[in-house]
Amino acid sequence: MPSKITVGQLVHQLQTFDPDLPVCLAINPDWPYAHRIGRIVEITGSNGAVYIAENGQEGVLPPAVRNQLDWADV
């Protein structure tokens, strides 16, 4: 996976999943918690980007998620 992805690439990846599933962020292998998604904002201009804010923790990531992210040994 590239270190940067575009909005189009993210949308394409998300379209392969059940649209009714909740979405969480997995941020840090040393602190493997699921985080809720907060606001999403766009900054325009030459350094434009879309930012997805974190909106609190959901709980510890299940072992299956950590395994798929290759975080099991961390």
Automatic annotation (TrEMBL):
State the organism of origin: Streptomyces violaceus (Streptomyces venezuelae)
Q: Which domain of life is it from?
A: Bacteria
Q: What is this protein called?
A: Uncharacterized protein
